[in-house]
């Protein structure tokens, strides 16, 4: 299995909050939880995937969008993310040591924030993230916004090209960039067959 990102095991893991639990957000959460970041996902379950049926996701012949999401949620849960289903994020702001993420229930602290709210760009706008001329959140290939430590992924960063496979890639790219930032060098989440038992335990070993 890949090395964990924190150099000192005794230190608390860096924390990441993902806002939105569609394909982009769950992909970001998967890479974060799998690689030792303290990972929380907030989602209100309005993903477009509930309206979709995938025939264009490489490696999968045919799958219903809701079924795809159920598998993705299970995968993220199994890897240790705290998925807060039904808890809406009402605000994100910069704090002295990172970010404060607000819901009606509580305020949560995070070192990094990944926005994955589909076509809703309100939180990015309120945070002061730069937008493009096409009025989508302006990011580079690493998915970081103009606000350091805030990433934007999925439908919110493109006026078109709204595909699950692209959203999943965005989420992965965002978290890999965060992991590289934490580790201080390029981070590669590479596994080999011998890692299967450690990562997935008995289910894969059978
Ligand atoms: C009819 C239809 C058919 C489609 N068919 C296909 C297809 O065949 N193949 C394909 O690849 N794609 C298809 N798509 C597109 C695909 O569904 C999207 O590309 C994909 O869902 C985008 O993922 P995302 O994670 O960016 O956003 P979303 O899937 O929209 O997820 C965003 C999530 O964030 C949550 N959220 C938003 N704001 C907050 C907040 N403040 N707090 C907490 N949670 C919040 C929402 O509830 C939602 O669950 C289709 C879409 C539609 C509408």
UniProtKB/TrEMBL annotation:
Annotated GO MF terms: oxidoreductase activity
Keyword presence, DNA repair: no
The keyword Oxidoreductase appears for this protein: yes
Gene3D superfamilies: FAD/NAD(P)-binding domain
Keywords for the protein's UniProt record, in alphabetical order: Flavoprotein, Oxidoreductase
The FAD/NAD(P)-binding domain, residue ranges: 15-119
Top-level taxon: Archaea
Record InterPro entries: FAD/NAD-bd_sf, FAD/NAD-binding_dom, Ferredoxin-NADP_redctase_2
The protein's name: FAD-binding protein
Organism annotation: Salinadaptatus halalkaliphilus
């Amino acid at each position: 299995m890949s090395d964990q990102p924190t150099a000192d095991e005794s230190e608390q893991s860096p924390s990441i909050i993902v806002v939105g639990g569609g394909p982009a957000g769950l992909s970001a959460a998967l890479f974060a939880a799998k690689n030792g970041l303290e990972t929380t996902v907030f989602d209100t379950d309005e993903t477009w995937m509930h309206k979709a049926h995938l025939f264009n996701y490489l490696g999968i012949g045919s799958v219903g969008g809701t079924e795809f999401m159920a598998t993705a949620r299970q995968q993220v849960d199994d890897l240790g993310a705290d998925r807060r289903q039904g808890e809406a994020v009402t605000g994100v702001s910069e704090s002295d040591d990172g970010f404060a993420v607000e819901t009606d229930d509580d305020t949560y602290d995070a070192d990094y924030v990944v926005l994955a709210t589909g076509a809703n760009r309100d939180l990015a706008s309120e945070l002061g993230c730069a937008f493009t001329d096409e009025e989508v959140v302006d990011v580079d290939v690493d998915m970081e916004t103009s606000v350091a430590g805030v990433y934007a992924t999925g439908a919110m960063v493109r006026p078109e090209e709204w595909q699950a496979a692209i959203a999943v890639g965005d989420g992965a790219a965002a978290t890999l960039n965060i992991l590289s930032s934490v580790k201080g060098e390029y981070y590669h989440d590479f596994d080999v067959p011998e890692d299967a038992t450690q990562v997935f335990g008995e289910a894969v070993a059978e």
